[in-house]
């Protein structure tokens, strides 16, 4: 397939194409110069990656955020992932990297964490603050049932003639036993490994 002839172009477009053809080296040189100057100017532009830069700087929320940034140290989180062919090799690599990270300038790195024992301890020590409302209602109900049963069992004049007690025993563990089992499971998870290691090591 041959290229279209310039004779099929309109007179203005034909003169423009002929001018470019005559001055092609100058056009290429000017284009290259513009690209270099534009690239240099673009490299001088600051990179503002914060979400606050999406808003006008005169907004009250942006001004308040800037005041907070002057008083509070801002930081980001960087994850260093070690991947290897075996758990032993990744453990050795992590042991070599850890002291190098901890030795870095404190102005650059606030702290290095290789496990979540601190956060796990916080959540475990304050575990009852994070219980859902439904679980709290269930615990109150189970405790009320436990107190009632204890009072009845301590009463020498009480005789249970219903079959409800036998049916409950056959049904399985009580509510309180289920809640205690769930708490024991959570405690076992808390006392388990805190290291940031995948199940396969």
How is the secondary structure organized here?
Layout: H1 11-22, H2 24-43, H3 60-71, H4 87-102, H5 117-125, H6 133-154, H7 164-171, H8 175-191
Summarize, please:
With 201 residues, this protein is mostly helical.
Note down, in words, how this protein is organized.
The protein has 201 residues and is mainly α. 58% of the residues lie in helices and 0% in strands. It has eight helices and no strands. It has helices at 11-22, 24-43, 60-71, 87-102, 117-125, 133-154, 164-171, 175-191. The longest helix is centred in the last third of the chain and has 22 residues, at 133-154. It is elongated. The chain starts with 10 loop residues before the first helix and ends in a 10-residue tail after the last helix. The mean pLDDT is 81.
Helix fraction, binned, reads: 55-70%
> Which whole number gives the mean pLDDT?
81
Order of helices and strands: HHHHHHHH
Q: Helical element count?
A: 8
Instruction: Give the biggest sheet.
Output: none
Strand content: under 5%
What's the alpha carbon Rg, rounded to whole Å?
A: 36 Å
What structural class results from the helix and strand content? mainly alpha
How widely separated are the two ends? 62 Å
The total strand number stands at: 0
Uncertain segments: none
Shape: elongated
Name its key features.
single chain; 201 residues; mainly alpha; elongated
């Amino acid at each position: 397939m041959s290229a279209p002839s310039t004779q099929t172009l309109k007179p203005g477009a034909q003169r423009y194409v002929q001018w470019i053809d005559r001055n092609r080296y100058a056009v290429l040189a000017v284009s290259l110069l513009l690209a270099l100057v534009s690239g240099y100017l673009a490299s001088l532009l600051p990179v503002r990656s914060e979400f606050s830069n999406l808003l006008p700087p005169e907004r009250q929320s942006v001004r308040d955020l800037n005041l907070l940034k002057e008083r509070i140290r801002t930081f980001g989180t960087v994850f260093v992932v070690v991947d290897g062919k075996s758990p032993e090799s990744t453990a050795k690599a992590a042991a070599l990297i850890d002291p190098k990270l901890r030795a870095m300038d404190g102005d650059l790195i606030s702290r290095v964490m290789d496990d979540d024992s601190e956060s796990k301890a916080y959540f475990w020590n304050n575990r009852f603050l994070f219980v859902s409302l439904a679980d709290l209602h269930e615990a109150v109900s189970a405790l009320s049932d436990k107190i009632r049963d204890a009072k009845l069992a301590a009463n020498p004049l009480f005789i249970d003639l219903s079959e409800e007690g036998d049916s409950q025993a056959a049904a399985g563990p009580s509510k309180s036993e289920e809640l205690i089992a769930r708490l024991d499971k959570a405690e076992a998870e808390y006392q388990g490994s805190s290291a940031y290691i995948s199940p396969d090591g």
